[in-house]
Design a protein that fits this description.
Blueprint lengths: L1 H5 L15 E3 L23 E4 L2 E5 L2 E2 L17 E2 L3 E2 L5 H4 L2
Antiparallel strand pairs: 1-2, 2-3, 3-4, 5-6
């Protein structure tokens, strides 16, 4: 929903023609290891991260691959997917529940 709200038409869903950014994690094992002293420490419990269809974290280890690219909004009306159809409507009242 955040991608739709921000007007990012190729983010936030798995579909042909969209960017494949996927994080696979174990909700029971995920732990934030960063601190104020060491803010760059990676979290535990995230064995795989796929960015643009490329594995960048494999079995919990960085692969050193730089698959990301800058995110740009490419149309003026958030919530409308050009060439892909209408996005589901977002009612901010539903988010408060």
């Amino acid at each position: 929903m955040a991608a739709t709200f921000l007007g990012l038409d190729k983010k936030g869903r798995i579909q042909v023609g969209c960017d494949a950014d996927i994080t696979i994690f174990d909700a029971n094992a995920i732990t934030d290891k960063s601190t104020y002293i060491a803010p760059g420490l990676p979290s535990e419990g995230i064995p795989y991260v796929i960015v643009n269809g490329v594995v960048v974290v494999d079995d919990g280890k960085f692969t050193e691959v730089r698959a990301g690219k800058p995110i740009k909004r490419n149309w003026a009306i958030p919530g409308e997917y050009p060439n892909l159809g209408k996005a589901p409507s977002l009612d901010m009242k539903d988010l408060a529940r």
